[in-house]
Amino acid sequence: MKKHITKIALSALLLGGGYLAGTTIPSLANTFNSEQPGSANDPLVTKGYVDQTIDKLIEEKLAGTDLTIGGGLSSSLEVVKLQPGQALYPNVGTEMIVRTGKTVAFSDTSNGLADVTGAKDVLNGVAVENNHLLINPGVGRGIKPHESVDYTIYVMVRGGYTIK
């Protein structure tokens, strides 16, 4: 009988100790960790809130960016009409393809436009071949209709430019 009472007492002691440990240890952990989820120190947010905040920040950043042709950030090609006597001054990095007409390159320096298709430089006064991709590597360079041209030249342009 004594064994039986000892087992019951031991079981009660273990159950009571387990209950006491289970209730006091989490509350002790909370006193050491004051950052409760959802509090000002540890905010709990939803995925929707994060997505909405990110979208708002992206819109704010894009609102201050000029995405027009003159800004040099266009990702699409624009067909530009170049009249006799005009000159196309592309921004640095602007891509051009002369589609129709006879044009020549001009440059303020000894360097010219990069003809990516022909793998060469098109220097000042040299004729530009139609349907060749040109990239402007510097300022003071561009293309203009040949002096014998009396019709509209069509040029596809990606990036910023000025016509003078």
Automatic annotation (TrEMBL):
Signal sequence extent: 1-21
Sorted UniProt keywords: Signal
Lineage: superkingdom: Bacteria
Keyword Signal: yes
Protein name: Uncharacterized protein
